[in-house]
Amino acid sequence: MARELTEVGVVGLGTMGAGIAEVMARAGLSVTAVDVDEAAVERGRGHVEQSTGKALARGKLAAEDRDAVLERIRFSTSLEDLAHAELVVEAVPERMELKREIFSALDKICPADTILATNTSSLSVTELSVATGRPSKVIGMHFFNPAPVMKLVEVVRTVVTEPSVVEDVEALAARLGKVDVTIGDKAGFIANALLFGYLNHAVALYENRYATREDIDAAMRLGCGLPMGPLALMDLIGIDTAYEILDTMYKQSRNRLHAPTPVIKQMMTAGLLGRKTGRGFYTYA
Ligand code: CAA
């Protein structure tokens, strides 16, 4: 039978980490949310306040539940505060070395049966698992942006992940109100492997000036029933994150579909990272 997890941790409080902390707290779990310094922690807290505020305004959350959600998240700048977590989700930027350092540190801090999960979109979960002394307790738990809204969690098992760990994470996903799909450890898993070729192609159409950004987005929203056009979605995902995902998939498969369209790298270098910096393909107030 799956373990009922009550104490969880999240490391990295960017858009995804803060969203994951919110989802966990909304499901009644006690969350320790960690980032490197006070400024990062405050940004994370801001994300949660803004998102729960929006949920309140849309009638998805009652005022007293919002207060309870915020109270269930303990913010911290120290990984040591994860010493009692039964599961930790890492959601720091997509850099293998940084993630390996965090996994190795968590391995020393957390009890031997703590599950160490990564929200990576495309890096190898297996490579992360061997940065710890407990590869069988390491798993991918991949949420989608915005985490409080998107229903899917991809559960990524490596060749050494214990079946009971997969079961525990699937049961947790259900408690979070999510639907899980399970996949082996390959770059892009299911959704990104299929999505990013399309997004990259849309950027190439735009770069080659075949159509305006508005028309590309309108075509896919109004012609194909997608909630958002591809360029608006790139801005939501973050141009840097999108570049890293494409680059990793391209390096793994050498499939030209995933060779990042040059303007993506240029936008990244120029700091046009999408919604989070106020400008990407579109400009945000
Ligand atoms: N908490 C709870 N519910 C919320 C919420 C919040 N913070 N914000 C919005 N919602 C709810 C709204 O109440 C609304 O619900 P109903 O339909 O029941 O009324 C619904 O979400 C949509 O909200 P809005 O119409 O107000 O639109 P929005 O602008 O707030 O959000 C969107 C729209 C959810 C982002 C939608 O455009 C969408 O689904 N876009 C596509 C997103 C997508 O494809 N994400 C995946 C990206 S890929 C990825 O993440 C993987 C990776 O590794 C990079």
Automatic annotation (TrEMBL):
Residues 8-185 form the 3-hydroxyacyl-CoA dehydrogenase NAD binding domain. Coiled coil: none annotated. Residues 188-284 form the 3-hydroxyacyl-CoA dehydrogenase C-terminal domain. Belongs to the 3-hydroxyacyl-CoA dehydrogenase family. This is 3-hydroxyacyl-CoA dehydrogenase family protein. It comes from Geodermatophilus sabuli.
